[in-house]
User: What shape does this take?
Amino acid sequence: MGLNDGFWHEVILHTLLYPYLAELAEEAKGNGMPILRHPWLVEPDRPGLWSGDQYQFFLGEQLLVAPVLQQGATSRTVYLPQDGWWPLFGDAPLSGALPAEGGVSAVLWPAPVTELPVFVRPGTLLPLLAGPVDSFYDGASAPEVSTLASLSAAYRLALYPDAEGGLREQRVGSATVRGSKLSPDFVSEGLLLDGVALPVCATEPVPPCRSGNGEVFVEASNATLSHGESRLELVADSAQRYVIGVGGAAWGPWSEPTVVEQLDVQIAPPCMDE
Assistant: This one.
């Protein structure tokens, strides 16, 4: 269809966020709160986020987006409500932010042409689809077209613990997920599932197992992952499949940045034949 790899990479990221976006859509339906939010709606006591030319917005309450609007810029100053926010694809909380006016912290953040700076509120468990799908329309009948039904009860859990290692309780499918005293290296050698050491995954992961890329594969209704004092509890009415990781590791191969050479400024409309 003439679309380049960089375009599809962004489409896949948006697709993986479906559980989070669906939750925001339900909230908008219930109380009118928009999915894209002016910073004042989320952090009214921090004018450093919205009183000048910061040009940032929230996606829900957990994601802060800092678009690059200056032509040719490869970095921008990002203003954060507090310390400890995570880069969306980071492996640890942000470090190097400095106090700024208006009750915020500021950091100069790299922003290459293919990347949009996005940050996650500490203490967030971000639910994602287990993988990309071709269509959100469940009535699609072509066998080569994957839909949400093909990922029924299958999720990725991206963990962004706060300074104490805590996560806000999150409903994911039929499960309630809780985390405490989690560290950035939670998924590593020594991780236990219900008290039993997790084996290393084979080439094709078969749950339960732990990959060398910071991912855990689990299929269960009720389960507890632990590593020292760190605990992640999954309590569900029925079995679900999970890929679990801390920060960017949970996004699997889709956390890798788009290579600039993959961009093509001549992009045909998505529905146009070759």
User: Anything to note?
Assistant: The radius of gyration is 19 Å. The longest strand covers residues 104-110. The mean pLDDT is 90.
